[in-house]
Amino acid sequence: PKCMRNASVTARLVIVCFTFCWLPYVARRVYIMTECHLNLKVPLFVYLDVGVMAIALSNCAWNPIIYLTRSVTYREELAKMILSKFRQKVSINSKGAVYSSERIQRKLSTIAGITAEPRPKL
């Protein structure tokens, strides 16, 4: 079925992203272990190490992006979570005017394709 195919494509994307992000780090570490005579204080190697580590750690940021682009359910739940936070917030400008976040709620609801529950009037 279509949902199983989507899930397998998403799983493949996550695995490819993981491999792409961590392979340079592992390759660099193996190279360092096999080449003990290298002077690792050379600035090029320091910058290379920082860059490789940054790519490896960026894997944590890619997974939510993959899920957001691939899963409608993930987008809906994220929008509901954000909307629940905005529902409780009210801001007051310097002139004392009160602005609620209803406009923000409508915009997020439109983006996510869901309808926001109206906030109870006090």
Offer a concise description of the structure:
The protein is mainly alpha-helical and 122 residues long.
Keywords, please?
122 residues; two-stranded antiparallel sheet; 5 helices; 71% helix
Structure in words:
This protein is mainly alpha-helical and 122 residues long. It is 71% helix and 5% strand. The protein is built from five helices and two strands; from the N terminus they run ααααββα. A two-stranded antiparallel ribbon has the order 1-2. α1 (2-34) runs antiparallel to α2 (43-57), α1 packs antiparallel against α3 (59-70) and α4 (72-87) runs antiparallel to α5 (102-112). The chain is elongated and about 60 Å long.
Unreliably modeled segments: none
Helix fraction, binned, reads over 70%
Report the sheet with the most strands, covering strand number, pairing sense and barrel closure.
2 strands, antiparallel
Morphology: elongated
Question: What Rg do the Cα atoms give?
Answer: 23 Å
Strand content: under 5%
**Reading side by side through the largest sheet, how are the strands ordered?**
1-2
Counted by DSSP, the helix tally is: 5
**Structural class by sheet pairing and helices:** mainly alpha
Mean pLDDT: 75
Total beta-strand segments: 2
Give the N-to-C terminal Cα separation: 48 Å
